[in-house]
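Archive record:
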Amino acid sequence: MQASAKANLHALGAIALWAALASLGVTLRHVPPFLLTGIALVIGSMPAWPLVARNPRLWAIAPSTLALGIYGLFGYHFLLFIALRVAPAVEANLVNYLWPLFIVVLAPLFLRGLTLRPAHVLAALVAFAGAAIAILGAQDGAAAGGWSWGYLLALGAAFIWASYSLLTQRVAAFPTAAIGLFGLVSGLLSLLCHVLLEPAATLSARDWLLLAVMGLGPLGAAFFLWDRALKLGDARQIGILSYITPLASTALLLVVSGRAFSWSIGLAAVMIIGAAVLGTRTR
C-alpha cells in the first residue's frame, strides 16, 4: 500500500474517533471541562507507557519538541473550552472547524516542497461550507447571532491545532510514542487548570467508564493516528479529509439524541465527500 493511502487510512481512523467526541461530551456535560480533558488526556497517554517502560528513549525528545506538543494539545483545548464558555457554542465550534482549512492553506508556508493548487483551496472552501451547513442546520432554534470575543479564542484554537499539526513535520523526527508524553503533560496542566478555575466535582463509576472511552479514543488513539497520518501523507489532502469530522460528529449527535436527519445533513455530506474526493485526487 502506498504511503499516501496509509496516511489517509490513519487520518480516517482519527476522524472516526473524533466523531464520537461531541456525543461523549454531551453525555459528560456535567463534568467540568478542564477536569474532563485532564483525565481523558492522561488516560489517552497510557498506551505509550508500556513502550516507554521498555525503551525510555522514546520520550527522550528535545525540549522544543515537547513544548510544541504542549502548545498543540493543551493550548488548543484551553482556548477552545474558554471560547465555548463565553461565546455561543454552535457558532464558536464552527469557527473552531476552520483548522482543516488552515492546514490546507498554511501547508506551503510551513512545509518545504508543497505548493497550493486552486483545487486544494476550492475543496477546502467547499468542505468548510458543508461543515457550516451541517453544524448550523442541526442546532435547535435560530442562531444566537451577535459578536463575542470568544470567537477570537475559537479562531486561535483552530490556528493552534493547524500550526501544531504542520510544525510536527518541521521539528527533528520523533517517535509517535512521544505523543503519549504530550498528552500526559497536557493532561496534568488541564487538571491544574481545573483546580485553579473550576469547582470540585464528584465522578460516578459511569463517568469514569465514559472518561476511559474518551481517553482511549478521541483524546488518545486519535492523536497517535493523526501523527502517523501527517508523517506519511500530504497535509493538504489530510486537511480536506478532516472536514468529515464535523459532519460525522453532527450526524452521530443526532442519532444519540434521537433527532431526525434533515436536508442539511444530506447536502453537507455531498459537499464534504465531494471536496474530499477532489482534494485527494489533486497532486
Notes: DSSP finds 14 helices and no strands in the chain. The first helix runs from residue 3 to 19. The mean pLDDT is 84.
